[in-house]
Design goal:
single chain, 7 helices, alpha+beta, 11-stranded antiparallel sheet, outer membrane lipoprotein receptor (LolB), chain A
């Protein structure tokens, strides 16, 4: 099983990286604004605040650049922060020639696992592919083409430095903007089971364990937008791939109905190489 998962690892990003090889707003602080006196402490607890919020809708954007080529993968869905379950519909970019249309991939996010449908690469259309996120060199911060919304916030548990960048407005909501860096290994130590193993894998697999970020919190301390900048080695090719992952959270309290696939619906065959 572990061998098959390694072949699956890099599921979405692998195809995009092959294509690559082939081919924040900050507002001024208002005079009456009162930023947190300890932004590092505030951000380290932002994942806890999301758990209290319960659920939300989410949109994601992942931009990858290497060798002067840039592509973007987009996702949209819902997430339950209490159960750590989510569902995203991920849309892939066109091939460099612009002739190939990719079917949207449905992703189910669960503690320690990523499930994908419409994966392609020889997988029947009615079957799911299951990936153990702890077995991925990026912990599924990049592989699925979207960063798990809870993992995005959990990464902030590793905040090393943070500064207040002012107050601004995001989709009609006033937010506070913070900018800083997080350490993946430190984040893993403070994360819960399932997320902990994934972040620990990313700490070992990324080109650097230090992750710069911009995050926007509303007046309840809930993450409304977070942007991470990752860097990972591009397989057998020279150089690294620069990744900017942006997650937007809104409509808190939205209903979330995520049911993980039964074992009979999970594909156990060989995944075609890309």
């Amino acid at each position: 099983m572990a061998e098959r998962q390694r072949r699956v690892g890099g599921a979405i990003v692998a195809g995009v990286v092959v294509c690559l090889g082939a081919g924040g707003c900050s507002g001024g602080a208002a005079a009456e604004d009162s930023p947190a006196s300890d932004p590092v402490g505030l951000l380290r607890h932002s994942a806890d605040t999301l758990e209290t919020a319960g659920s939300s809708r989410a949109t994601t954007s992942m931009e990858m650049a290497t060798g002067g080529t840039r592509v973007t993968i987009r996702g949209e869905g819902v997430y339950d922060y209490t159960r750590r379950l989510g569902r995203l519909t991920v849309t892939l970019p066109q091939d460099p020639a612009g002739t190939t249309e990719h079917r949207p991939i449905t992703e189910l996010l669960a503690p320690g696992a990523l499930f994908m449908k419409n994966r392609g690469a020889g997988v029947p259309a009615d079957k799911w592919v299951r990936v153990d996120t702890a077995a991925l060199s990026d912990g599924n911060l990049v592989t699925g083409g979207a960063t798990d919304p809870y993992a995005a916030a959990a990464l902030l548990r590793g905040t090393r430095t943070a500064t207040y960048a002012g107050r601004t407005e995001l989709a009609g909501t006033e937010v506070r903007h913070y900018r800083g860096t997080a350490d993946l290994a430190l984040a893993a130590k403070g994360a819960s089971k399932g997320v902990r193993e994934s972040l620990a894998a990313a700490a070992k697999g990324f080109a650097t364990a230090e992750v710069p970020f911009d995050v926007y919190l509303d007046d309840r301390g809930r993450v409304r937008k977070i942007r991470h900048r990752f860097s990972f080695v591009n397989g057998g090719q020279k150089g690294t791939v620069a990744v900017a992952s942006t997650t937007l959270l809104y409509d808190f309290g939205a209903p979330v109905d995520v049911r993980l696939p039964a074992s009979k619906d999970i594909y156990a065959g060989k995944i075609a190489e890309r």
